Amino acid sequence: MNKDSVDIQEKIKKELKRKPKETIPHDVLHLAIEDVENKKNGLRKAAQHYGIAKTTLARYVKNSKVPTPEQFLSVRLTPEDIWPFPNAQARKQLVCGRKPGRTRILTSTPEKEAIETAEAIKSIKAKIESLAVQEF
C-alpha cells in the first residue's frame, strides 16, 4: 500500500469516529448558566442535571457576559456612552524654520547662475510689492 492511501484511510477512520455535534436548547443552557452563576449548583452538578457536557457548560459560563433583563435595567448609561464627545481637531503645523529645497552643487557655474537669477527675481518682486503697499 502507498503511504498516501494509508493516510487517507486513517483520515476516513477518524471522521467516522467523530460524534455529531449536539445542539443545546437556548433556554436549558441559560438555566444552567444561571444556576452556576447564582451558586445554586456547582458546575459539575448543573452539567449532570441539564444533560450538558461539563467543559461545554464551563466555556459558556466563562463567556457569558450577556446581562439578564434585570441586570440590563440596573446599568447606568451616560450620554457620552451613547453619543461620545467629538475628538479634538488636529493641531495646525506652524511654518517656521528652513524651507525644504533641492540639494545643489554650488561649484557648478550654470547651477550657481540659475540660483543667483532666481534670488534676484525674488528680491525684485519683494521690492515691487513693498513699493505698491507704500503708495496706498
Automatic annotation (TrEMBL):
Superkingdom assignment: Eukaryota
SUPFAM superfamilies attached to this UniProt entry: Homeodomain-like
Keywords noted in UniProt: DNA-binding
Signal peptide: none
GO molecular function: DNA binding
Coiled coil regions in record: none
GO CC terms: nucleus
The keyword Magnesium is annotated on this UniProt entry: no
Residue intervals of the HTH psq-type domain: 27-62
Compartments, record wording: Nucleus
One Pfam family cited in the UniProt record for this chain: HTH_psq
Gene3D superfamilies linked: Homeodomain-like
Protein name as annotated: CENP-B N-terminal DNA-binding domain
